[in-house]
Design goal:
This protein is of the alpha+beta class and 207 residues long. The chain is built from seven helices and seven strands.
């Protein structure tokens, strides 16, 4: 028990410090500063209550341990809680980037989708070339779907019959196809999800 109790106290303190930092971060973001609110979160009273409920058991535990002169365990709780709080507060701003990294389609998935698109281009003899670098960059920015960016290699605007073969294709993952003509203002974007729902910047291309 001498070893197990400090370990349990340390684990709980690390978790408590992280959760406390998370709710404090939400509270700070939701503060209305001169009429400009960075983040619309839950009511501040609710967040404050959660912060108090998280902190209360640790305060009570430290108080009781201090009374019983269990200074080693008391220090373990305080150090673990504070260290977890500080590290969590440092890492929380980067949390979104970490989540995006794991949500972004892998290079293998991107390659598979690009191969499928290239097959359609070759089979239908369509005047497009895939810009691989631009596709990867836009996929990283888009995060939630694979983007395939294509440039038209012939003069003239993008035609409906050049886009239609892609609209009628089923992909294994959510896909965004961007067709760019030679003129900078001539482009069409088609979003196709796995539920076969389709969105076009110009609906006439999807009908």
């Amino acid at each position: 028990m001498r070893i197990i109790f400090p370990i349990i106290a340390s684990i709980l303190s690390i978790g408590g410090g992280g959760v406390f930092a998370y709710f404090l971060f939400i509270l700070l973001l939701s503060i209305d500063d001169g009429g400009f609110r960075i983040f619309i979160g839950p009511p501040k009273s609710e967040t404050l209550l959660k912060l108090a409920l998280i902190l209360l058991p640790f305060v009570v535990a430290v108080y009781v341990l201090n009374k019983k002169q269990q200074h080693a365990i008391k220090k373990t709780i305080i150090v673990s809680f504070v260290a977890s709080f500080v590290m969590s507060f440092i890492l929380i701003p980067y949390q979104s980037a970490v989540f995006d990294f794991f949500r972004t389609p892998s290079k293998h998935v991107q390659s598979e989708i690009q191969s499928q698109v290239q097959h359609i281009i070759d089979e239908q003899h369509l005047p497009f070339v895939i810009d691989q670098k631009e596709s990867e960059g836009r996929t990283d920015h888009e995060v939630i779907r694979t983007v395939v960016y294509m440039r038209k290699i012939q003069e003239g605007d993008i035609e409906k019959n050049e886009v239609k073969p892609f609209v009628n294709t089923t992909f294994e993952t959510d896909v965004k196809l961007t067709f760019r003509g030679q003129a900078e203002d001539n482009y069409v974007t088609v979003v196709i999800d796995r539920g076969k729902e389709i969105y076009c910047t110009n609906e006439s291309y999807c009908r």
